[in-house]
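Readers of this paper often ask what the protein records in our data store actually look like. The remainder of this section carries one protein's record, kept here as part of the documentation.

:::
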Amino acid sequence: MNTRLRNNLWKFKGAKKVTKFDHFVLLVLTLAGILSVINLGEWWFREYHIANLFLFVLLSMFFWYGIIRIVLIWINYLRLKNPPVVPEPEEGLSVAVFTTSAPGEPISMFENTFKALQNLNYPHTTYLLDSTEDPAFKELAEKYDIVWLDLANLPGAKAGKVNEALRRTKEEFILILDPDHIVFPNFLDQTLGFFKNSNIGFVQVSQGYYNMYRSFTAKGAAEQTYTFYGPTQMGLYGYGGAVAIGANCTFRRKALESIGGHAQGLAEDLQTSIRIHSKGWESVYNPVIVSRGLVPEDFASFCKQQLKWARGVFELLFDEMPYVLKDLSFWQKVSYLSIGTYYLFGTITAFFIVVPLLYFFTKIIPGKMDFTEFISRGGIIMMIAILIYMYAQKFLCDRKTERGFHWRGMILKYSCWPVFFYAFILTLQKKSIPYIPTSKTAVKGFMNPFVKPLIIYCFIFLFALIGVYLERRYFTPESELLFTAQKTWGMIGFSFLAFIQSIGGILAAYEAVHLKAEDAWSRIKIRENKKIEVE
C-alpha cells in the first residue's frame, strides 16, 4: 500500500467499470465457496462432535454467524454496479454545502476546507454550522464568503446543527461535508446529475484520506474503509441499498423532510439512511474519490471513534430497526441487519478468547473435533475467501493507494474487540456516551483504557502457556499425553493467534508515545488555478 503524501492523491479517481466477465468470475468463486461451506457444515454438526452441549451451541452460533457474514459479502459482490453514466447536472439548481465546527477543532484546518469549497465548479452556498463560540471562526468564514450560522448549545450534536440549518435555509440539495475534508472542484459534478431522477433521495461518493502516512494506526484505519467504499458499497448499490455515510453525501431536501430531518444519534448517518430508504426513496453510490480527509492517527483516538460508532449502531439495531425493517426491500433488510450486527464481533471474539483458556484451566471443551480435519475443510473456505477478496480489489476507488492485504486494518479490528464488547454492554444497560468529534491530530501517550485489556490478555496467555507446559511436563501421565496432544495444540494455536493480534494492538498504541504533532493539512496547498498540491 502506497501511503506517502503525494500530489497523485489529489487527482480524480474512480472504481473500474464492472463487466459481465467480472460477474461470471465472482459467481463461480461464490458457488465454490458456498459448496465448501456446506461441506464444512455437514462435518461440523455431526452428533459425536458435541462435548458440552451448551458451549457447543454457543460455539456454533458464533462461528456460523461469522461464516454467514462472509457468504453475504460474496453474494453482495455478485451485484457489483457502477452508475452507467454520470449525468451532467441541470443548470440553476439551488445547492447548499453544510460543514460544521465544534469546540476543540483546530481553526487552521478550516483554511483549506474553505478554499477548496470556494473552488467547487457548480454554483452553491456554503454554510458553516458553528458551535465553538469562537469569533475567529466567524471571521474566517466571512473571509471566504461562507455564511456563518451560530448554532452553539443546540441539542443533538452534529445532526442537531444540520436540522437547525435546514430550518434556516431553502436550498433544494444539501451536501453534508466533514470539516477535515478537502473537496476537489468537480465534487458536485459527480452527484447533482443523478437527482434528475425524482426518486433519488441521496447520492453518496467514496471517502478518501491523505494522512495515512502518519502512523500504523492511520494506515490501518484507512485500510478498514477501502473495501467498504469500493466493492461493498457498489454491491449494495446493485441491490438498491447503497447507504449514506456521515460525510460526502448529497441529500435531496424533500427526502430529509420526509423523515422529519436528519436523524440524531451516534450512528446518525446510518439512521438517516435507513429512514430515507424506508420511505421509498432510492439512493445512488458513485465510487469516485472527489475529496480527501483525515483518519485517526493514534490508537486511543481510533478506539474512541470506534466506541462511538459501535454504541450508535447497537442503538440503531435494537431501537430503530424493528420498526422500519418492514418498509424495506428484502436485500435492504439483509444489508442493514448485517451492518447493524457488525460490532457483535467484540462479543464473539471475547467468547473465542475464553474457550481455550477454559480448556487450559478446567479441561472443559465445547466440541470433540479433529483439528486437522477442521483446518483442511475450513482452509478451503479461507482460500476461496482470499481469492474473492483479492479479485474484488479490482474495484477499489484508488487501486494504486488502496490495494493490498490490509493486515494493519485486520490487527486494528481485532484489537478493538474490548471496545465493541464494552459498547454492547453499554447498550444492554441503556447507558449513553457523549458525541465527541474525533481528534484531527495525534494524541501522545501509551496507557489508556483501550489497550489495558490487550495487555491483560497477553499476561494471561503467557501464564496459561507456562502452566500447560508444567502440567504436561511433570503431572500428565504418558498415556494421556498422546490422547490430548491434538486438543492442547489446537487450543494453543487459537490462543497464540489472539496473542499475536493483541501484541499488534499494543505496539500500535505504543507508537503514539513517539508521534510528533503535525498538522497534515499544513502541507496541502490549494492554488488559485484550483489545483491541490503537496508542498
